[in-house]
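Lecture 7, part B: from sequences to assemblies.

Below are the input chains for today's worked example.
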Amino acid sequence: MNRGCIAVGEIKCDSCSHLIEHGERYLLIEEKEDEKSRFCVDCCLSKGYAAYVEEKKGELMLTFFPARLDSREAQKDKI
Ligand SMILES: [Zn+2]
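Predicted structure of the full complex, as structure tokens:
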């Protein structure tokens, strides 16, 4: 289960060790009950966990995906 969150206090990215500062957005990935990973926006973008999606006024909004894009593609192939 992936969730887009806003950092409360300082959190370290589990991928690049970048410090996610208070108020910044990050992605919380819960693989198992006790296995949680936190990824900064840059890592989410490079791993395909998030993307900038254009809104009505031409503004870019950061959107976190519930699953990896490539696993979505894999699901499509099964159907
Ligand atoms: Zn990172």
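Note for the exam: DSSP finds two helices and seven strands in the chain. Keep this in mind when comparing with the next example.
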